[in-house]
Write a structure and sequence with these properties.
It comes from Adineta ricciae. It holds the Pfam family FAD_binding_4. This is Bulb-type lectin domain-containing protein. Keywords: FAD, Flavoprotein, Oxidoreductase. This protein starts with about 25 loop residues before the first strand and ends with a strand. The longest helix is centred in the middle third of the chain and has 16 residues. The radius of gyration is 28 Å and the shape is globular. With about 650 residues, it is α+β, with helices and mostly antiparallel strands. The chain has four domains: about 110 residues, Uridine Diphospho-n-acetylenolpyruvylglucosamine Reductase, domain 3 (2-Layer Sandwich), CATH 3.30.465.10; about 230 residues, Vanillyl-alcohol Oxidase, Chain A, domain 3; about 120 residues, Agglutinin, subunit A, CATH 2.90.10; about 120 residues, Agglutinin, subunit A (Orthogonal Prism). The strands form nine sheets. Strands 11-8-10-9-13-14-12 form a seven-stranded antiparallel beta sheet. A five-stranded antiparallel beta sheet has the order 1-2-6-4-5. A five-stranded antiparallel beta sheet has the order 27-36-37-38-39, with no helix packed on it. It has 13 helices and 39 strands. Helix content is about 20%, strand content about 30%. Bound molecules: flavin-adenine dinucleotide. The site of flavin-adenine dinucleotide has 29 residues, from helix 2 and strand 6.
């Protein structure tokens, strides 16, 4: 609807999406007399807030970003600045018009198709039916909004975090009414507390400010202001143009430039321990770039609605943290995500381990439980509709023609094709066992053909291409012999990769973030991610999972593998590593991401996210600094940084040379 899914699920970020654009189904029909509004799913929050405010200062309790679409927002919950006062958007949905999997247009409500109505209020985005209109109950916008924003230097972070938690959990001390909305934003550079109060009588606001600031150091800055509801919402989202004309921007449906970010989210029902706060602040201080932790209250009115009233399950928590980081260049992405993961992990055990589905994160394991908890058991009978929906709207799903990807676990048989999205190129498994790429308008001239291992004899059909669970794409013959493969095996992380044919005439194996792992252009495992072109690693320059050093002649690469080993690859040996590090047998349940680095004692080592040592050279006794170099002939050499003749450790052609002393 509004295209704001964090993972781009409505914008084709996963293979074989069907995109239904609701941009023009964006009507907003207000009925002040009955205190309801009928809204098309493509309407965005900004214009909705604007229009409702023109009707006797009404509003709905929605989100804070004016470009979010009502469709996705309302189906997942709909959390915003009025959540403590009026609850979630799902708590105000009275009726929906939907198209179900059979193609019927239904009006559903608490009294008609109540199961579907229940499921679509909290677990509905892109699943059980397509919503074409929402009928929502209106609420009065607050008469006045008063807000304090106080900002501290990072040295006050721990104290402010503890004070925030004390006020959130010690209700006899804080005694907040639902008019108070207490938020905290933690960044590497500063920590900010925002206290918002709704309503004209501000005694409670003043009391809360005094309570908050009582035991804390003096903030770097404080700013208190009062506004009407609409100005408050618009100013918060920072969307005004140079003439301060946000209304014009919104009503013309203009959009902002896109930016790249990754977000994770957790709910908490008890305070984060002092130990975890220490861990969090330490990890926060170690990264660079823009990363923000937003603490938002999830109690108040939300908690007064019975847990089973809607599919939205998380009604007994105090606050949630949204962890978000941003980057400008693709090559920073992995590093930023690793930083985010470390911070998220540092408080994960203190949390409920549950999360809000509208802050969707494709890396969350066991996602049904994380997003729907005990409500999961009520959802499966409806899930059938999803599958039906796919077939109803895309009748050719059963055949691979018209499909550009071979998903993990799928097979392509002789004569079957994958077709590029522009339908001009196809990949076919031929009767002779070769995979071949053709242009549709020139089926006699293969653009690319797979090889067949010449050492094999007695090859016979029928052949099959399997995108295996271990992430290798393999062509087998009728006797089960491997006759060709992409050499992208990665068994410790099953089900990650898929294979696809692209408009650019290439066939690719791609990872879960769509990164290229293998391509028909080079025919070998790619070294594209990370520090390509960098052949030297100094102390402090960490290398993360999937990143690599590449020799100056680009013929050799050292890669941090998905299973925690480091491995050396040569470009001309068909993708098998020439050397791999081991995994210390004593470590248990290692966890991605992995980091490869020069240690303080001048060894090289691999650690997992939990800080467990996975592999280390353990030979150096050098004082000063060292440097790791990957040379053109494949030698990996650790030497003293200021003297390349002082060798600490080296490895060539699989043979390691240890230097006991330097
Ligand atoms: C900048 C930003 C700010 C945000 N702020 C908030 C906030 O303050 N509060 C909050 O609760 N959330 C917030 N979110 C999260 C937001 O609620 C979700 O991303 C929501 O799913 C977006 O809805 P959409 O229609 O814009 O997105 P879309 O990407 O269009 O849709 C999201 C999902 O819903 C499904 N869907 C959309 N419309 C329909 C429909 N008509 N029928 C069936 N399925 C449908 C899509 O298939 C997709 O899976 C924010 C997101 C962003 C990017």
């Amino acid at each position: 609807s509004g295209g704001h899914s964090y993972e781009g699920y409505s914008l084709g970020s996963v293979p074989n999406n069907i995109i239904i654009n609701f941009g023009k189904l964006n009507h907003i029909h207000v009925n002040v007399h009955d205190k309801i509004v009928k809204i098309g799913p493509g309407a965005r929050l900004g214009p909705i807030y604007y229009k409702l405010y023109q009707h006797e200062k009404h509003t709905i309790p929605g989100g804070s970003c004016p470009w979010v679409g009502i469709g996705g927002l309302a189906l997942g919950g709909g959390y915003g600045l009025l959540a403590r006062l009026h609850g979630l958007l799902v708590d105000h949905v009275l009726e929906m018009k939907v198209v179900n999997a059979q193609g019927d247009l239904l009006a559903i409500s608490a009294s008609h198709e109540s199961d579907l109505f229940w499921a679509l209020r909290g677990a509905g985005g892109g699943s059980f039916a397509i919503v074409t209109e929402f009928t929502l109950r209106l609420v009065r916008a607050p008469l006045l909004v008063t807000r304090l924003k106080a900002v501290w230097h990072p040295n006050a972070t721990k104290a402010v975090m503890k004070r925030y938690q004390l006020l959130m959990f010690n209700t006899s001390l804080s005694n907040f009414s639902n008019n108070i909305f207490l938020q905290m934003s933690v960044m590497k550079e500063q920590i900010t507390i925002s206290i918002t109060h709704y309503g004209p009588a501000i005694r409670e606001f003043n009391r809360t400010v005094s309570l908050m600031l009582a035991t804390l150091p003096t903030p770097k800055t404080t700013n208190t202001y009062q506004q009407d509801w609409l100005s408050f919402v618009y100013d918060l989202s920072d969307i005004a143009d140079a003439d301060h004309n946000y209304r014009k921007l919104l009503l013309e449906n203009a959009t902002l430039p896109t930016y790249e970010f990754k977000s994770k989210h957790l709910y908490f029902d008890k305070p984060i321990s002092d130990h975890s706060i220490d861990q969090l602040t330490r990890h926060l201080s170690l990264g660079s770039g823009r990363l923000c932790l937003e603490f938002n209250p999830w109690d108040g009115y939300i908690n007064t609605i019975p847990i089973d009233a809607t599919a939205f399950r998380h009604r007994q928590y105090k606050f949630g943290i949204q962890f978000t980081d941003y980057w400008n260049h693709t090559y920073d992405e992995q590093r930023q995500i690793n930083w985010l993961e470390r911070i998220y992990t540092s408080v994960h055990n203190d949390s409920t381990k549950h999360s809000y589905v509208n802050y969707i994160d494709r890396d969350v394991p066991n996602w049904m439980n994380v997003y729907y908890d005990t409500h999961t058991r009520y959802l499966p009978r409806n899930v059938r509709c999803v599958v039906l929906l796919l077939f109803v709207h895309n009748g050719d799903q059963m055949s691979f023609d018209g499909k550009s990807s071979l998903l993990n676990g799928e097979e392509l048989h002789v004569g079957e094709r994958l077709t590029s999205p522009d339908e001009k190129i196809y990949l076919i498994l031929q009767t002779d066992g070769h995979l071949a790429i053709f242009r549709k308008d020139d089926p006699n001239q293969a653009l690319w053909k797979s090889t067949i291992d010449s050492k094999l004899s007695n090859i016979q059909g029928p052949f099959v291409l399997k995108m295996q669970e271990n992430n290798d794409a393999v062509v087998y013959d009728g006797k089960g012999q491997t006759i060709w493969h992409t050499a992208t095996r990665c068994p410790d992380f099953p089900g990650l990769f898929h294979l696809e044919i692209d408009d650019d005439e290439g066939c690719y194996v791609r990872g879960r973030k769509n990164e290229i792992v293998w391509t028909s252009y080079t025919g070998i495992r790619c070294f594209q991610e990370g520090k390509e072109g960098m052949s030297v690693l100094d102390k402090g320059q960490d290398l993360y999972t999937n990143q690599c050093l590449v020799s100056p002649n680009e013929k050799v690469a050292l890669m941090v593998e998905l299973d925690g080993r480091i491995a050396l690859y040569k470009r001309d040996n068909y993708g098998e590593p020439t050397w791999q590090s081991t995994i210390t047998p004593t470590v248990s349940s290692i966890e991605e991401p992995f980091v490869f680095k020069i240690t303080d004692d001048n060894n090289i080592a691999v650690y997992d996210i939990k800080g467990q040592l996975i592999w280390k050279t353990n030979v150096s006794c050098l004082d000063g600094d060292s440097r790791l170099v990957l040379e053109d002939d494949g030698r990996l050499l650790l030497h003293a940084k200021d003297d390349a003749n002082i060798h600490i450790w080296s490895m060539k052609d699989g043979s390691i040379v240890h230097y006991k002393s330097v």
